[in-house]
Design brief:
The protein has 152 residues and is mostly helical. It is built from 5 helices and 3 strands, in the order ααβααββα. It folds into 2 domains: 64 residues; 77 residues, Orthogonal Bundle (Arc Repressor Mutant, subunit A). The model has no long low-confidence stretch (mean pLDDT 84).
Length: 152
Amino acid sequence: MQALEDLQELLILLSEKGQRIEALLHEIETIRADVRGLKESLRETFQHEIETHQAAVQVLLGKVPALNGAKSLPEMISSILKAHGTPLHVNEIRNDLRHRYNKEVSRERIESLLYRHAKKVKLFYKVYGRPNTYGLVEWQEQSGKKPTISAR
């Protein structure tokens, strides 16, 4: 009688272990699918990076012109501001860099570049009373206003 009870307990344990194994196999398949997705995403990212670097090398070698004739980030930003004809917020400039030049630049890098230029009254000015908004110094010179920069 004890042997029969032991056998029933063993069958219950085996059944529970089988269910646990099935759950683990399902988790493994989910993880494999996630890994495949990450692998593909990384492949696409690296491919984009490689293409971007190859294009930059071609520009540096003089084999192809830079996009829209702009060669540097300040020149690209200047082109964007000229196209809009009005001062823009850093986020708008960043969006235009992404769309016009297919260039991904961090907000912080753009803010830093614009602020440094504005502080030197060189190319860009910071619009008073409008946070993170910049225009072209030439606009102020044309209107007779003295370029200024306000504290952050």
